[in-house]
Fold this sequence. Notes:
This protein is mainly alpha-helical. It contains 8 helices and no strands. Helix 2 packs antiparallel against helix 8 (176-185), helix 4 (78-98) packs antiparallel against helix 6 and helix 6 (120-130) packs antiparallel against helix 7 (135-173).
Amino acid sequence: MQPQLGAPLGEGHPGLLPEQAAERAFGAFFGVNTFIELYWIRHLHASREVAGGALACFLVGGVAGTLLGGRVADRIGLVRTVQLGGVLAIPALVGLRLAPGPAVPLLFAVLSGIALNIPFAVLVKLGQDYLPTRPGTAAGVTLGLGVSVGGLIAPVFGLVAQAYGPQGVFLSLCAVPVGALVLGLFLADPESPSDN
């Protein structure tokens, strides 16, 4: 499949936009996963047990979000599901950062896990639809590269935490899904008959 001049970015650069959206989603996921307990202990002044509960809430939300993403994609389509994940992640992370006390933010930990995981499996499928003759390459680019680059972002959050504390990390995390959402707006529906 050759990139065509004037084609939507998702069609002209197969796998590129899903991979970039996956990087941002995984970057936010790794950021929350890495710093959520520290955030609860140092910023919300919670016990280690409650901080561990916050991580568990986030991960349980992640499982629910992955399953929900597949169901939502079956109903509204792949591209809209990726966009929905970006839209939901922003208020969930903002709520996680701004909610007071150690108990109320637990709800936003669950919601953040759900929102950040809605697009994960969908992005892999979308990449495979963009590269239908190379599903392994598509999965490697969207999931494998997305996880790797997303994981490489975690040390950047470490520098932010060193300078501004875990609350600075969570403030930064609020901006990460915005990039994924913007990229999601340029995704083309692979099922549309664009080549005809």
